[in-house]
Design a protein that fits this description.
This protein has 7 helices and 7 strands. By secondary structure, it is α/β, with parallel strands linked by helices. Strands 3-2-1-4-5-6-7 form a 7-stranded parallel β-sheet, sandwiched between helices. The longest helix has 27 residues. It is globular and about 55 Å long.
Length: 239
């Protein structure tokens, strides 16, 4: 949860060169936060009021090398991803690696950091999945990868023990189609989406849903509720 203006935090954003990443960066900078941008791309652009305070270059599969940077981050927003319509097997592998496994690796590393964090301020991680987690996106590789990361996040959150709940806040961001380079016909404005993410993050809710589709506001809470019950059953029989 974002604290008051008197206690600014450091925010890390992956996919910071993308459309939504840029809008989130600008918004957090305007609010006075320090922003660290993580990107696969070359970053020759100058540092200004609308760019991250610092750029970190990284590669999928090498997330462990980022641990020293992640230790200094209070809120980590996992926003990177790909959307490719290719039918090649390599596309399925890349989609799963980038959209799902990479984010899960970030989550696990950040969880380890939070567990050893001596500060009274909880670490936060917000993971951008998609409506494609349970709704069609007309792209099988994208849907599979988003379903995978969505399930991983749900189980991770529901299986946190009491100590971890006192150290780490997990939020899942469910977004409908917004206009971007990957989706030029998206309905929602990315500036509007970034502002809604910022505003809704102040609630205690685990889910941050921003969509023009009313079904999302019904189906995703139901899905999370059944995952919660499932995890409770696991705990009961385990004990």
């Amino acid at each position: 949860m974002i604290n008051s203006m008197n206690n600014k935090k450091t925010v890390g954003i992956t996919g910071a060169t993308g459309t939504l990443g840029k809008e989130l960066t600008k918004l957090f900078r305007q609010k006075g936060y320090k922003v660290i941008g993580f990107t696969h791309s070359e970053t020759d652009s100058e540092i200004n009021l609308e760019s991250p305070n610092e750029w970190i270059k990284w590669e999928c599969g090498k997330e462990a090398l980022l641990k020293k940077y992640l230790k200094n981050i209070d809120i980590l927003i996992l926003n990177h991803g790909i959307y490719n319509l290719s039918r090649e097997n390599s596309n399925y592998e890349n989609s799963i690696e980038i959209n799902a496994l990479s984010k899960f690796k970030f989550l696990n590393i950040f969880e380890d950091i939070a567990l050893t964090n001596d500060s009274n301020i909880k670490k936060e991680i917000w993971i951008n999945t998609s409506e494609a987690e349970i709704l069609p996106a007309l792209n099988p590789s994208y849907e599979i990868s988003k379903t995978l990361i969505g399930q991983l996040i749900s189980f991770k959150k529901n299986l946190l023990n009491k100590d971890m709940k006192n150290k780490l806040i997990i939020k899942k961001i469910i977004l409908g189609p917004f206009k971007s380079e990957l989706n030029p016909i998206g309905i929602m404005n990315p500036k509007f989406v970034s502002k809604k993410i910022f505003d809704l993050s102040n609630s205690k809710n685990y889910l941050i849903i921003i969509s023009p589709n009313p079904l999302s506001y019904l189906l995703f809470p139901l899905k999370e509720f059944f995952n919660f019950l499932y995890c409770k059953i696991i705990y009961k029989y385990k004990s």
